[in-house]
Amino acid sequence: MNFLEVLHVVGLLLLWTAVAMLPPAALGCLEGLAFGWIIAVGSTALAGFLLWLVTPKQISINRREGIAVVGVGWIAVTLLGSLPFLATGTAPTVASAIFESVSGFTTTGATVFPNIEALPMSILLWRSISHWLGGMGIIVLGVAVLPLIGMGGSQLFRAEVPGIASDRLKPRIATTARLLWGVYGLLTAILFVIYLVLGMTVFEAVNHAMSALATGGFSTRTASLGAFSPAIQWVTIVFMLIAGTNFTLHYAMLSGRWGAWFSDAEWRWYAGVAVAVSVTVFLALGLSDWGWVFRDATFNVIAIMTTTGFATADFGQWPPICLVLLLSLMFVGAMGGSTGGGFKVARAVVVTKHAAGEVQKVLHPAGVFVTKLGRNPIRSDVLLNTLAFLALYVVTHGVGTLLIAAFGYDLVTATSAALAAMSSIGPGLGAVGPAEHYGHMGTMPHLVLSGLMLLGRLEFYTLLVLLIPGTWDKWGGHL
Amino acid sequence: MRVIVAGAGEVGYHVAARLSREGQDVVVVDVKPERLEYVQTHLDVAVVEGSGASISVLEKAGIRGAGLLIAVTNVDEANLVSCMSVRGVKDLMRVARVSNPDFYSDGAHLNPEVFGVDVMINPERELALETVRLLKATAATDVATFAGGAVQLVGVRVTDDAPIAGKTLAEIGSEQGGEAMLTVALMRGGETIVPSGATEILGGDLVYFVVTGKRMPQGLEFCGYRQTSVRRVMIAGGSLEAYYLAGFLNQHGAQTIMLVKQRERAQELAERLDHALVLNGDATDVELIEMEGVAGVDGFVALTDHDEKNILAAVLAQHAGAKQVVTLVNKTDYVPLATRIGLDAVVSPRLSAANAILRYARRGTVTSVATFKDSDAEAISFHVASTSPLVGRRLADIDFPDGAIVAAIVRTAVSDPIVPRGADKLAAGDTIIVFALPDSVIPLTDMFPS
What's the whole-model pTM score? Predict the structure, then answer.
């Protein structure tokens, strides 16, 4: 692996991050936080510039470098993205600043701050921007606008975009990346305007629009979307669903193929599960002390399934059946190719269908059973990869739960915190429920959860491969 | 009429043989000299060596002045190119064999006009359709449809204890009080008999009768069978025929089990067929087919690429208790053997293709042609045009050629086919079904000019 070339691209990404810090920095200057913001922007820009300067200009990114760029790039960007929280003195500890930054870029939306309204506006804006950049992917953005990494862009793209198969919209990967970001930007702008019309301030509308389309979850209010009108909540439900949908389907819709959503098998499952669970939760709440609160039931179910993590109610207090359903949705997550996280609907469907086929196989040992998603048969290597992904998910979740529990947290808190981090949701249950925050945790739990968030966002393989020593050898450790 | 047959494979050979026997001028084109050698020693046809897709080869075969081009090589694309390259030739009907299901799939249906093809035939699909008809008519050996499916010609072997066994046709007619079952021919000991009222039906006879669709169960009952519905079918083999059949059975709501020996083919079929249970195994693996419930299936269809395997698998299935067994037999010589060991329902791509092609090889108002496994005889249906001089004439007064017998008259005003008697008069718009021996085919078609 040519590590210097990897660092060169990482340097470019950091410069890009510094540029993204400029709008909140400008806002910070007005708030009297000029010193902190100058340090944050300056250090990020300097680190990026130095890396860019000392490394060779000629770069040739192939598969191995591409994966390393994504892994190292994400770690570098999230680390330096924590500087605004530290330099302005908002975050109490280094680990909590890193946690907040990772939570932002991975679109998790878990926060260490108990009182959001007390935060400076510049910090609130930076949290939303980190969501928005991380949602469609900083690397995909890089592929879209940086001609330098156009060559190996396809590798980078595949390493960052979640899901079973990331399909290209156009023959050239850079065009595809540009179209995806274009659709993403357009949808964000539309939501921004709708929010304005429905009575949000410009600042709130910008923040929530970016947070919603990225399936993030950071809000400008401690009460999250619960602080806004029912109309705003309904609009948010719709846009969370849109953000959790494969963006190539949006592109197809925008180019005139109106049936694109419905003709996609994964989308039908996604929408079907969302509706079925919403109705079940609604009924369960109606039959309990909570009463018939359809909007709350739907909003929080969709917020969890799309892995956004907004909240309008303290669903931690809901009846047990609702909690189990929400935990299941935390695992399943949104669609591949969306800005949402989780195991992904398509993977869940494929694994379940495959399991059903294996049961049939007991009855018909000679039977040939093909697992299909819609009309498309799933190739056996893709199937094996998906099963391995399931194993990674389960094992990582187990280890994560164990580590959180080791710091004295109860089972519900530990298991939901680990899952909420891996699936990039944000609020969990118990001590990290929607009415709570992650500020009471210590340095180690913060770092563990940060690691889980990155693993989940980059779907394990990209980060885990960095742990294999061979990755760093010139010849990949095998000759 | 000069007919050019491009491709001397099973289908091409059989079509050439039939047309030649009728007295047509047939030229066979193929790239393989040894195949042409075989054709020339067995048939009275001319041969031209070369690719049927080449215009110069077709010119050499006399495409100018020919009335019919039948492109039936094993390669769909070559057949299409053959037709395409002679688009400009006047008064030429172009028939192409196109078997690949991808050319017929939703949204990708080939437009025959683009290729200058007048008729696309798909022998594998025809065979699958015929198999479905056989499965639905329990115990039938042949099922041919006429008048758009309204009338069926069914061949059934009469059981020894059948209600009609040991009776003459006159007795059967008076007993059943009508023409529920119109017997047009019967085969006994390899001989085709055109029955009269005094003909006695014996157990073991293969009778051919004409019925409307809804009278089929009654007809089968007279011959000693009860029609059962087709709910579970086991198919041996992963051939193209098997693929089409599984699709049709699914449309009929029947559960399908397929036995496919090659692992890759089994995988491919499992991917393409949503509702069939595909098993990777051999059709002659007795333990496997018993475990998968061959004893309870309504139909067992042997469609592998090997006649021997098909016959063996069919016999095994029949012994295990499968109700209707249909066997694909390619080699003509095996057909009598299959019949002798009790496999009456035999299908072959050759015959299916011939049935589809022959009606286009006829001038006149032929609407369809059916051929029978054990015999040279054909059942041909003609449309009686209003301008025909035959309209209004009594059948007894019409001079039909020797070896041709009017089997039934289908009249839109009458729901059942009419038993033809000498005094019956033909009306405009009738469809008449004629049982004909090869020599009589051409004079017969001349009587019904288009």
Answer: 0.81
